[in-house]
Write a structure and sequence with these properties.
With 726 residues, this protein is mainly beta. The protein contains 10 helices and 52 strands. Helices cover 10% and strands 38% of the residues. InterPro entries: Calcineurin-like_PHP (IPR004843), Metallo-depent_PP-like (IPR029052), PQQ_b-propeller_rpt (IPR018391), PQQ_rpt_dom (IPR002372), Quinoprotein_ADH-like_sf (IPR011047), TAT_signal (IPR006311), WD40/YVTN_repeat-like_dom_sf (IPR015943).
């Protein structure tokens, strides 16, 4: 069976000279480690490149296209087959097996892949399945005299991409140890001018400015597009799923020819159309890029922002600037409004109109357009605008994706944050660290306060649920025997607080006081949102496209209600309530949201009470002191509804999208956080909307909390921000 494991992806192919896994894996460099010699090759390059196959055993058309393309690649007989990600439709074991079944025997040891967002967005295994089937986050394959660096920029259970510190360090190490070897980079997401798929693209550019990559192969967009930036050529591949095509990379290092091979009629797969695409020179360039700015300064001037760029005096060309478009979430803007900066002899200065820009953290793109044929350069410069609106900021040890929680009370109230390093950090009202604790795995999901703040429940990706006291003391750990890839929920059953946590497809009911497993129940699919209970039933959204009710005391099934009309496992999963935190309303109604709408269901039988259009799945709901229901959709709209009927009482449009980070309701004011950290306050009484600040140039993916006199949100890079209330 073909597996996209690290071992297979780096396996030695005797006929073609691939290195084995141990030789090719990039890890921390030892002091004085020698650079590898140029890898052996036949004197010519012979690679195949494909992307976005979306293997799905339930989709005959997808599988037919994939099989036809792989059969044609087998005829081509390449040294290496490179896959640019979205190998599967939504990352299940059955889909990986379907891809495996389509691979001809002759290609089984030649495939190297990167994961795409379709392998990570709906992953309930905390990355374990994709690591098993595709490989480690950064891998290296040396073949035909070329070093191919495969890097994973996906973000766990998110659409937006991110270069982790460890991935960047390994990529840099791979390039440092191959200065004289031609290099090709492979990632799923493209980068460059107008691209906002990777939220920290400049961090990557800082690395490759020292170690240039000549060719970057990507997927994701399903379109063929050739671009060039910072001396790097980029090829976005047409999707196998939609075009039934792949690319042949042949020739020598100085003249690598790329040809698209398309199968226009799957009924006649032997008839192909061959189209020359481009030719590339892979010979490494050494030395500093002459036309990258020596210095680029951005300064807030109130109504404007000044941009000053310094280049060598010999530069001939133009320099432009524009604001980073923080409103784009994991997408692209082809219509950025560039302003040309006046200047000459290497000094260019100008102004950008900034009256409509919020206070806080921002970025400006600087584009250099030399008159020679080397292509544009792009740098992105951060700056702070006016007052930040932030009372304090505290970094923690790793990335933050799960909701923060509060423990204690009054002057002893603490904010508890879990991060990807497995560290739990408690902060006081001034942002000072009061204690830390470490758990077995990464923390990627919500923390849950217990017993009115006496303790906090912490889920980790090793499959443990931990209870920590308000002082950080470890009180119990419950092993579920499977990976946690979901937010836990809680509620009271027979007077005792119970935790509900899904590991894989098993729902666990755990006594919050002792950590004892009360019962388990098998679900028909994975579930990643937080369950809840009214004391009689447990309610949760499941990846079969339905809301489920189970007996709160035994875990036995009570009812199931489908909330999507889609068909097929993939469609029902993504359009259903797979990630929804179910809410029980004051009148007992069960609120469940999918991608397209929200349903209020009867707790007794799951019958529909009312339905409301909109994508409200990500942000958790809240109820005002007056009893109104408040929800936020992913387009940034905050609505107030009558919970009994679903009638809309008011609607307020904020500036940017609202996803898992959601909002915090305090004293009839809704504090929203956008995906890019823009904090706004919506006064439900007056309808007034005030933009407070943008907390960071980093995605905010974790739900915040009211803490003392502040609203607190943590960003993906691991900084906790306390925002001043209005």
């Amino acid at each position: 069976m073909t597996r996209f494991t690290r071992r297979t992806a780096l396996a030695s192919v005797p006929a073609t000279g691939l290195f084995g896994a141990a030789a090719a894996h990039v890890g921390p460099a030892s002091a004085g480690a020698p650079r590898p010699a140029a890898p052996p090759g036949s004197g010519g390059v012979r690679f195949a490149f494909l992307a976005d196959s979306h293997a799905d055993p339930e989709n005959a058309e997808n599988m037919a296209a994939l099989k036809a393309v792989l059969a044609e690649i087998e005829t081509f007989d390449p040294t290496l087959v490179i896959h640019g990600g979205d190998v599967t439709e939504h990352g299940t074991a059955a889909e990986f097996d379907a891809f495996d079944s389509a691979v001809p025997e002759a290609l089984r040891e030649r495939i190297a892949a990167v994961p795409g967002n379709h392998e990570t967005r709906w992953d309930a295994t905390a990355s374990r399945l994709r690591h098993e089937r595709i490989g480690e986050d950064v891998r290296v394959v040396d073949a035909d005299g070329v070093r191919v660096i495969l890097a994973d920029t996906t973000t766990y259970q998110q659409e937006v991409a991110w270069w982790s510190d460890s991935a960047l360090a390994e990529v840099e190490e791979a390039m440092q140890r191959s200065k004289n070897i031609p290099r090709i980079l492979v990632t799923h997401f493209p980068m460059g001018e107008g691209y906002y798929y990777v939220a920290n693209q400049q961090d990557f550019e800082d690395v490759v400015a020292k170690h240039p990559i000549m060719l970057h192969l990507t997927g994701h967009t399903h379109r063929e597009l050739l671009t060039r930036v910072n001396r790097r050529d980029q090829l976005e591949a047409a999707a196998v799923k939609t075009v039934a095509a792949y690319y042949e990379l042949t020739g020598d290092i100085a003249d690598l020819q790329v040809t698209r091979v398309e199968i226009p009629d799957l009924e006649v797969p032997a008839q192909t159309v061959r189209t020359p695409v481009a030719s590339y020179d892979l010979r490494p360039e050494h030395g500093t890029d002459t036309w990258l700015p020596k210095n680029a300064e951005v300064t807030d001037q109130g109504e404007t922002v000044s941009v000053d760029v310094k280049l060598p005096g010999s530069f001939r060309g133009a320099v432009d600037a524009t604001f980073y478009d923080a409103s784009i979430y994991a997408g692209r803007n082809d219509e950025l409004e560039w302003v040309t900066l006046p200047g000459s002899r290497g000094r260019y200065s100008g102004q950008l109109e900034a009256a409509e820009i919020a206070q806080g953290a921002h970025r400006v793109h600087v584009r250099v357009r030399p008159e020679d044929d080397t292509g544009n350069r792009l740098v992105t410069v951060p700056y702070l605008r006016e007052e930040t609106g932030i009372a304090w900021e505290t970094p923690v040890a790793g990335m933050v994706q799960g909701a923060v929680a509060t423990v204690g009370g009054g002057d002893e109230e603490l904010l508890v944050v879990g991060d990807s390093s497995g560290q739990v950090t408690a902060l006081d009202h001034a942002g000072a660290v009061r204690w830390t604790s470490t758990v077995e795995g990464e923390i990627r999901h919500d923390l849950v306060p217990l017993e009115d703040g006496a303790a906090v429940a912490v889920p980790d990706t090793a499959g443990y649920l931990h209870r920590l006291g308000a002082d950080g003391s470890a009180q119990w750990s419950c092993a579920t025997g499977a990976v946690f890839g979901a937010d836990p929920g809680t509620g009271v059953v027979d007077g005792a607080q119970v935790l509900f946590a899904t590991a894989g497809t098993t729902l666990h009911a755990i006594d919050a006081g002792s950590g004892t497993v009360l019962w388990t129940a098998e679900l028909p699919a994975s579930s990643m949102g937080a369950p809840t209970t009214d004391g009689t039933h447990v309610y949760l959204g499941v990846g079969d496209g339905a809301a489920h009710a189970l007996d709160a005391r035994t875990g036995e099934n009570v009812w199931r209600t489908s909330v999507t009309e889609r068909e097929g496992s993939y469609q029902r999963f993504i359009y259903g309530p797979w990630n929804d935190a179910v809410t029980v309303l004051p009148d007992g109604g069960v609120l469940v949201s999918g991608i397209s709408d929200t349903w209020c269901l009867d707790p007794a039988d799951g019958g529909a009470r009312w339905r409301f259009d909109g994508s409200f799945q990500y942000a958790r709901e809240a109820v005002t002191s007056a009893g109104d229901l408040v929800m936020a959709d992913e387009r940034g709209r905050v609505v107030r509804l009558d919970p009994a009927t679903g009638a809309e009482l008011a609607s307020h449009q904020t500036a940017e999208r609202i996803l898992d980070e959601g909002f915090v309701l305090v004293d009839e004011v809704v504090y929203t956080a956008s995906h890019s950290g823009l904090i706004s306050a919506v006064d439900l009484s007056s309808g007034a909307i005030e933009t407070i600040t943008r907390v960071a140039n980093v995605p905010v993916l974790a739900r915040g909390a009211a803490f003392g006199d502040h609203i607190v949100f943590a960003d993906l890079a691991g900084t906790v921000h306390a925002v001043e209330r209005v």
